[in-house]
Structure formats: structure tokens, C-alpha cells
Amino acid sequence: MLDDEIRRRIEEFRRQVRTEARRRVAERRGADEIARRGVAPTADRVDFLFAGRAQLAELRRTVQPLARKLATRLAARRRRASRGTIDLRRTLRGSLSTGGVPMRPVLRRRRPVRPELVLLCDVSGSVAGFSDFTMLLVQALHDQFSKVRVFAFVNRIDEVTGLVVRGAADPEGLGARIMAQAALTGWHDSSDYGVSLGEFAERYADAVGPRASVFVLGDARTNRSDPNLPALRRVAERARRVYWLNPEPHTQWGTGDSAALAYAEVVEMHECRNARQLGELVARLLPV
Question: What does the pLDDT average to over 36-41?
Fold first, then answer.
């Protein structure tokens, strides 16, 4: 009986310590922050860099619903854009019949042309989950573009457009097929953005033209190798737009071997840590 009473009191003491520790943490951080961290995030808020296998599988199941939602938003943007801008000369000419008052503005109609999309995806290490999800999303949205080309890299770059297109039937195996069939590494397995960007600018310059929007996906960690900023500038000069989506928090850009801040001086870089942020960025940044 005495042993049972001792164990009971020890357990009660531990419970009180845990309760007091939570109370003090809540005072320091705020109750809302504790509640946010104490509840498991929904699939669209799971951090790409820390998602486990089960969470990545759940994320893949959200691709089609997200793609449908984005397609609707892109179609609405395209309709608004097709209305065009006011043609001032024709509007003023038409106002002569109403005493110089422009009662009926004449619009300069835009000719609807679907944009071209180019993806450059770092598929090394923990960044691979982020790139895989984005490639699957683009796969689901491919009919929104006149042309889509996808390139993957670790320390060499290779075109994987065919693998992505054919991967619709088996989205879970997309990353493994790319790693097995594409030439992505040289004499080591570490990521090298400088070499990969240089190869892309030299070998695949034809993929980028004035109608192409280029998205670079990766954490910009170069393993302290040359980031090759001139290669990225050459790509930016040829493209309509270049955006860099970085799955790391903005506070970590430029730390350690990160060249994010240097790349961000050349192209527009955005933090993209989860599916919710990715959906918002795609809806906002994709041209119509």
C-alpha cells in the first residue's frame, strides 16, 4: 500500500509540473499560438519540408480538388483580361454623336493566348516532396497552358516533361521514376544550383521565350558552390517572367549555404511552405 501511495503522489506531482509548464509557456507565447500548435494541421497547411510519408500521400489526394479550384480562378481571370482596355481614339470618335460625351466606351479587345509554363525543380533531399507536389499540380492544370515543359535537377538538369505527363496514372511513383530515369547527378549526389542553372541556360535555351513564365522550385541551398547568377540572369532576360518558389521560411534565406537572397536580387522569390501558399501563389502569379 505504501508503494502504491508513493507512486500515486509521484504521478500527481508530475501532472502538476506538466500543467504548470503549459501555463507558463502559454503566458509567454500567448494562448492562441499554443492552440494553433497543439492542433494537427490540415493537409493544405502541412510544411512541405517536414511532411512524412503519410502526410505526403494525403497531400497528393488534395491535388485534383486544388487543381479544379485554381482552374476556375484562372478562367475567371482570363475572362476579365479578355475584356481589354479602353481604346481612347475610337471612344472619342464615337462620342461625336453624343455631343462629345463618351457614353459608350470602346474597348481594345485582347486576343486570348494561353501562356507557356516552364518548371525547374530541385528534386534532392527534403525539397523533393515540394517539387513532386507542384509537378502533380501542374500536371492537373496542363490544359490551362499552350505548352508546358518540366525540368528536374540535383547537380545536373534533365527534361522530365514526358515522365510528368505519363505519370498521371501513378502520382505516388512520380518522384521515384524521375530519379531512376533522368540524368540528375554527376560524380556526387549533393544539389548544385550553379551547375544546373548553367546547363539549363546552355542546353535548353529554346524552352524559354517571350510568352514563357518560368518557375524555379527549391531552397536555393548551394552546398557553398558557385550560385551562377549570370545563368539565372540569362534565363530571366529571355522569359516573360521568372518566379522562384522557396519552401524554406523567409527568416532562413541567406543563412548557412543558402544563396536565396542573392537569387532574389535577380528574380522574384516567394516563400512557399505548404499547399495553401502554393495555391495562392499559382492563382496570383500565373499569367492569363
Answer: 60
